[in-house]
Amino acid sequence: MSARRLTRYQKRRAQKAAKVALGVFAALIVLTFFTVYYLDRYSLLPSPDAELHDKDDPGYIPVSAEPLDIEVSAKQAFVYDCNRGEIVYQKGKQQVVYPASTTKLLSILCALEHLSPDEVITPGEELSLVGEGSSIAYINENHRLTVEMLIEGMLLPSGNDAAMVLAAAAGNRMSDGEATGKDAVAVFVQGMNEYAKTLGAIDTHFTTPDGLAEDDHYTTLEDMILISRAAAENDIICRYASLAKDNVTYASGHTNTWVNTNAMLDPDSSYYHPAVTGLKTGSLDRNYCVITTVEQGGECYIIGIFGARDKNARFADTLTIIDHLFPAKEVTP
Question: Same structural domain for residues 145 and 265?
Answer without folding.
Answer: yes
